[in-house]
């Protein structure tokens, strides 16, 4: 789905999880409530901490998506769909950015595949907003490729707002807090074992002040990242990929790439294996300590870097001859991908527990994967080199 947005008070700990593959360790305490939200799988609930039934008690129902027959011009509410420079226009421009990114990535993937087309599902949410899910399966080049966008509205229980505003008077009783979240999320699984898997997502999250708390500020965050998961290492490919990520970061702050590269290595860590899922990239979350316009431009630059970072690698490797042994190793690495997503990815596990749209929740998983008992690659082999790099992250540029 990275550090979650955590709001702590003396008596409670609340954690907001903006998107799948976007959350690292969250601090929660036994019997303390946790609020979790995933716009990738648009469900909002309050767990305390055992069941979704608490969401109903808190007055925050779990909403189901409604299938739609046509793609709307915008998923924004009418008041937000405006051009003036305002906080609402950030929502409008972010939605435009993620929908443009979805279009450009899908177009590039279809061109690289050479025949297969994305299937599109459009859905809306009773509380506001909706999304577009696109999936390509069994293509000539891609085994499975998913590119989803969501733009959703909801209501945060008042306890979360009080925890966020720890300095506020304890006798205040604010009502439910509105929130807005939007994001693009994608996982691309090629067939050829020498062509790497790619994951990326970029998201924006806002909360509004309760109506009975005049003057309270709006809270907002950006998050996201792009990371590479190959089965075999081609150093020129990995260096190209990381160079594009660094270039996007350096346009805004030269501290971003080293900081977000380490963040990525630390997040995509399979604890029970003692290894990373892949060879990293960049990852960031809970980012609001910079100018909002700068961060919107930064997220846009990162999303626009996906195609030039990835497609040249695919074009170079998609027709590389391979053996059954190469394919078996790719399937084992896909197994690691599945393990991370089902065990550690908070967006995935949360969506499964709260009855979200299963097709959207599991779109990140490959069509095929493999597990072998106690598999150990021969030391010095190409497979061993990949595993070593996943255990011991490297500086590629």
Characterize the structure shown.
The chain has 397 residues and is α+β, with helices and mostly antiparallel strands. The protein has one domain: 3-Layer(aba) Sandwich (oxygen-dependent coproporphyrinogen oxidase). The protein is built from 11 helices and 14 strands. A hairpin with a 4-residue loop joins strand 7 and strand 8 (142-156). The longest helix is centred in the first third of the chain and has 27 residues, at 87-113.
Spell out the key features of this protein.
single chain, 397 residues, alpha+beta, oxygen-dependent coproporphyrinogen oxidase, 8-stranded antiparallel β-sheet, two-stranded antiparallel ribbon, 11 helices, 25% strand, disordered N terminus
Tell how many strands the DSSP assignment holds: 14
Estimated structural class = alpha+beta
Q: Roughly how many Å is the radius of gyration? A: 21 Å
Report the sheet with the most strands, covering strand number, pairing sense and barrel closure: 8 strands, antiparallel
Order of helices and strands: EEEEHEHEEEHEEEHHEEEHHHHHH
CATH-assigned fold name: oxygen-dependent coproporphyrinogen oxidase
Per CATH, which architecture? Answer: 3-Layer(aba) Sandwich
C-alpha end-to-end distance: 26 Å
> Shape, please?
globular
Overall pLDDT:
81
Question: What's the assembly state of these chains?
Answer: single chain
Unreliably modeled segments: 1-60, 163-170
Strand order of the largest sheet: 5-6-7-8-9-10-11-14
Count of runs of 4 or more consecutive helical residues: 11
* Portion in helices: 25-40%
- What portion of residues belong to β-strands? 15-25%
CATH superfamily: Coproporphyrinogen III oxidase, aerobic
Please, how many domains?
1
Which CATH class is shown? Alpha Beta
């Amino acid at each position: 789905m990275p550090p979650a947005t955590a709001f702590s008070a003396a008596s409670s700990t609340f954690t907001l999880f903006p998107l799948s593959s976007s959350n690292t360790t969250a601090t929660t305490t036994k019997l303390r409530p946790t609020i979790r939200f995933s716009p990738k799988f648009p469900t909002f609930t309050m767990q305390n901490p055992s069941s979704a039934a608490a969401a109903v008690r808190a007055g925050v129902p779990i909403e189901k998506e409604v299938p739609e027959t046509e793609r709307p011009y915008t998923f924004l509410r009418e008041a937000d769909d405006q051009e003036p420079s305002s906080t609402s226009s950030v929502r409008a421009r972010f939605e435009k950015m993620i929908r443009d990114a979805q279009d450009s990535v899908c177009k590039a993937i279809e061109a690289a595949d050479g025949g297969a087309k994305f299937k599109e599902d459009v859905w809306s949410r009773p509380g506001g907003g909706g999304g577009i899910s696109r999936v390509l399966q069994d293509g000539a080049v891609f085994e499975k490729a998913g590119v989803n966008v969501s733009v959703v509205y909801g209501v945060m229980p008042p306890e979360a707002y009080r925890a966020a505003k720890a300095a506020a008077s304890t006798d205040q009783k604010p009502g439910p807090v509105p929130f807005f979240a939007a994001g693009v999320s994608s996982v691309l699984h090629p067939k050829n074992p020498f062509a790497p898997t790619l994951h990326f997502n970029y998201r924006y999250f806002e909360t509004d002040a309760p109506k009975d708390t005049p003057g309270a500020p709006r809270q907002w965050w950006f998050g996201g990242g792009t990371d590479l998961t190959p089965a075999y290492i081609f150093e020129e490919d990995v260096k190209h990929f990381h160079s594009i990520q660094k270039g996007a970061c350096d346009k805004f702050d030269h501290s971003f790439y080293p900081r977000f590269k380490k963040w990525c290595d630390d997040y995509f860590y399979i604890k029970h294996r003692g290894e990373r899922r892949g060879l990293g990239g960049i990852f960031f979350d809970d980012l609001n300590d910079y100018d909002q316009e700068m961060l919107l431009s930064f997220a846009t630059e990162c999303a626009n870097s996906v195609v030039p970072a990835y497609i040249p690698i695919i074009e170079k490797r998609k027709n590389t001859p391979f053996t059954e042994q190469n394919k078996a190793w790719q399937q084992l690495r896909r197994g690691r991908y599945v393990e991370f997503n089902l065990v550690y990815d908070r967006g995935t596990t949360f969506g499964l527990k709260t009855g979200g749209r299963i097709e959207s929740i599991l779109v990140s998983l490959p069509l095929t994967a493999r597990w072998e008992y106690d598999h150990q690659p021969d030391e010095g082999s190409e497979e061993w080199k990949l595993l070593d790099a996943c255990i011991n992250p490297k500086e590629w540029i």
